[in-house]
Design a protein that fits this description.
Structural class: mainly alpha
Helix content: over 70%
Number of domains: 1
Shape: globular
Number of strands: 0
Number of helices: 5
Strand content: under 5%
Length: about 90
């Protein structure tokens, strides 16, 4: 139990540092998702890094990897539309 709390603490501190320009509520939402399945996000991060080393831009690599894992990512997303402050769909 302590290990998970410590891991959450480190994740939150890293998110504050790495996403300092992102509003606090959005940072918390992102860290909540990562906390639900840290292994998935580790795998995503590693794959993005591999693609970047292969010459892809970070944006393109991230978009392609997120597409690949969209099913797993959507399973982590809240079911109710306003859990992230919006419906997640564009009009």
């Amino acid at each position: 139990m302590w290990n998970m709390s410590f891991q959450s603490f480190l994740l939150n501190q890293y998110a504050k540092w790495k996403m300092k320009d992102v509003p606090k509520a959005q940072r918390e939402q992102m860290t909540a998702l990562v906390t639900k399945d840290p292994q998935l996000f580790k795998k995503i991060g590693e794959e993005i890094e591999r693609r970047k080393k292969g010459g892809e831009s970070e944006m393109k690599a991230a978009m392609e990897v997120m597409k690949k894992y969209r099913t797993e990512l959507s399973a982590l997303m809240p079911a109710r539309p306003n859990d992230f402050g919006h419906s997640g769909r564009q009009k």
